[in-house]
Design goal:
By secondary structure, the chain is an alpha+beta fold. The protein has helices at residues 6-16, 89-92, 160-166, 173-230, 238-275; strands at 19-20, 27-28, 31-42, 51-52, 58-61, 66-76, 81-87, 96-98, 103-104, 109-118, 124-127, 131-139.
Length: 282
Amino acid sequence: MSFWSTERLLQKHRLDKLIDPFDPQCVKQGAYELSFGSEAFISTELKGTKQTLVTGEQIVIPPGQFGLLLTEEVVHVPNHAIGFISIRFSIKLRGLVNVSGFHVDPGFNGRLKFAVYNAGSQNIILTCGDRVFIIWFSDLSGPTRDVYDGDHAGQTVITSEDVMQLQGEVASPAELKRKIDELKREFEQRFTSLDDKITIWRTVTITLLSGLFVAVIVGMIFLALRIYAERPAAPSNQPAQSTRSQEPTQDLKQREPAANQKTENSANTPNNTSAIKPEPTK
């Protein structure tokens, strides 16, 4: 098995009409450069349907998303050959990867559908009519009667079945990272907001407690002053009167013995006088 050269590819095309429409300028280094056609479907399409394009119109394949692209040309692979397909290197370099397989069976006839995946970190923009794909041809050991006659034989459009298989946004690594970053920013914003609220409530609470403490202290001071002001004052001459009231009592107690003594003396005086008898005169 050997791959066809540019000259052999041109020769075989004249015999078997390999590609339609055919442009000799698209034959380079033994391969034919196929163009991006008029239909495409992207997994993030809001309408959930394929896009129909005109030459020069563009599509966008976001990072981490799939696309189904149709070629402009109809490809015919003879029963003695097999085709190999890929994406041009300049487009691969952006991150676009072919995930639909790498060969075209002997006997296939129709437009090729490329299932692609954007493995890059940026949007990939493709323009209808641009040379995006490549096909090589190689000989088999001989003609085969086991040619392709499956569901894709003679295909020219992207079907509803094709669209249904690719519907829905894909949670790609890039998309997951973007969502995680968004959640992180949202969490940080909420945490900052919560921290600010806690600070505000702490300040308000401290202020209220401080005001309440001051009010309690001031109230206690006023209550003490009020109690002191309402207490009856003691008379200033009370100690003197009590002293004076005690002095007569003491004097009376001291004078009673003296009076009793005088009474006794006065009582004893006549008796003593009568007891003394004058002596007779001699």
